[in-house]
Inverse folding.
């Protein structure tokens, strides 16, 4: 199975900050990497698919990059509604696997 | 607007069975690949399984912890996805989400609100 490791597991940031979350795969997954945002008590929502493609309706302050084993989700200017938990997910091979999550909290 | 509504969750004893349903609207369900994803209380996301559309073969894939115990099926005439869960274990306790699965880009696009399954004696 492909293991997905996210870092950090949590971070504190202020509104307006640039935030970067990383995700590392245990083997190469090409660009088969997606990012989700989940708020407490709610279902996840896809932000980025295929490593760098912005899902329709998602604000342009979210961006993704990377290929192979190392990936990054960047929020260019953190907004109040962005405080949430973020997950990466690989779809290169079964079983589909998620990273452990990164909780973004208010500083 | 795509809407997915799960139902069927509840409290069940270890070794018991439960069937979850996911009613879909706003999407051409017969063409949709679908998945189940679960989340144990306070934990991260775990993929459970996926079913292709019948046009694409209708085949299923499962995560190792549920393979042989859980079965995903679909009734396109009712726009409904199912998850039959047998031989339930305490570690199956989770919120279960159904989601559409993009066959092209392999991401979970639309999600239901989830239904809680609690396995406890």
């Amino acid at each position: 199975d492909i293991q997905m490791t996210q870092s950090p597991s949590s971070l504190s940031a202020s509104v307006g900050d640039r935030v970067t979350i990383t995700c590392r795969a245990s083997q190469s997954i090409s660009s088969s990497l997606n990012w989700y945002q989940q708020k407490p008590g709610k279902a996840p929502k896809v932000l980025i698919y295929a490593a760098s493609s912005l899902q329709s309706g998602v604000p342009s302050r979210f961006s993704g990059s990377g290929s192979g084993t190392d990936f990054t989700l960047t929020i260019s200017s953190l907004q109040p509604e962005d405080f949430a938990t973020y997950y990466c997910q690989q779809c290169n091979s079964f079983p589909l696997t998620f990273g452990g999550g990164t909780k973004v909290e208010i500083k | 607007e795509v809407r997915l509504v799960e139902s069927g969750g509840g409290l069940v004893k270890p070794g018991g069975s439960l069937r979850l349903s996911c009613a879909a609207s706003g999407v051409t369900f017969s063409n949709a690949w679908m998945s189940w994803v679960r989340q144990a209380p306070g934990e991260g996301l775990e993929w459970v399984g996926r079913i292709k559309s019948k046009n694409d073969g209708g085949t299923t894939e499962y995560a190792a912890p549920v393979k042989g115990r859980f079965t995903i099926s679909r009734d396109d005439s009712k726009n409904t996805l199912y998850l039959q869960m047998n031989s339930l274990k305490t570690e199956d306790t989770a919120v279960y989400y159904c989601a559409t699965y993009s066959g092209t880009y392999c991401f979970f696009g639309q999600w239901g609100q989830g239904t809680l399954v609690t396995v406890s004696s």
In short: The radius of gyration of chain A is 13 Å. The CA atoms of residues 22 and 72 of chain A lie 5 Å apart.
